[in-house]
Amino acid sequence: MSQPNATEEQLRHLIERIERLEEEKKGISDDIRDVYNEAKATGYDTKVMRLIVRLRKMRPDDRREMESITDIYKNALGLD
């Protein structure tokens, strides 16, 4: 078997880094799920909490625009 060249070594290192990060991501996802389960057990509505987390990630202008469009759609469908 031939000796791996620098390009092959670099590729192997990159793949191994990705694999480690995927494992960390899974651990973090499990931790987040545990926090939502704790919140649910305490009586919080986790669907609303997920919505709030998503809204807080948005820039204020984008959030206002989305809320405005949502209101237009709700009015058009008679949801108010």
TrEMBL record:
Coiled coil keyword on record: yes
Q: Which Pfam families does the entry link to?
A: GapR_DNA-bd
Coiled-coil ranges per the record?
4-38
**What are the UniProt keywords, alphabetically?**
Coiled coil
Task: Show the InterPro entries listed in the entry.
Answer: GapR-like_DNA-bd
Question: Domain GapR-like DNA-binding: where?
Answer: 8-78
List, alphabetically, the NCBIfam families matched. Answer: PRK13694.1
- What protein am I looking at? GapR-like DNA-binding domain-containing protein
